[in-house]
């Protein structure tokens, strides 16, 4: 095995809840209210849709807001890889990755192991460091490829926190049979004071529609017994994944960083969020005052 090269789960496609669009000659990230499944091929018009996208969308009757999935590994931390990440836009490569306690940083003398204060308190990151996660899943029951799945990348704290909790909980209640649990990715919406009542979307992980938690656990036990009798070694697979992830300092390939940066780490000047209109009168007045100040105008008294 090549040292310094992280061996990550083979990906046959992507799951996203947004896309990159071109406005005034600039490519900008735009959020969506549904899932999209793509291949790993990017054309001039964006990512090429995966054949499963059309199949699942037709079954859903339009917008794709839930996807039946299974996990690749029993260890929750192998399925969801979350860290604080800083990328070099000019060179297209990862610079620093940490977990809030320690980090691996690229320096003049190679990779350094340093303390990590977290994204909000890092002087080195200068506000450019973000929580960044990759969720690896099998779509459906892995009929097409039992060891190659789809990857969902996100910088959403709501998504990261929710998925981390769900994976730990399902692992606990199933007795460690996380890979055998019939699960479903579900897109949820919520409103916050920061969004002025406008819904924001995040990804949740639930038991598949039509099943109770007890039924899902029973199915997991049955599948685990069938796999063991057939010689499937899940413990060995988890061990191999642990070894592969720890083989390199950075999990994101440099050839993929440009697409990651474009979608999740755009330049501040290019990533201006849409102007949301507050619902209350005071909020609308405050917004108008701010806009007038930016334009150098004065509000009437």
TrEMBL record:
Domain of life: Bacteria
One Gene Ontology term of the molecular function aspect: hydrolase activity
Pfam family, one: Gp3-like
Keywords in alphabetical order: Hydrolase
InterPro entries: Gp3-like
UniProt protein name: Hydrolase or metal-binding protein
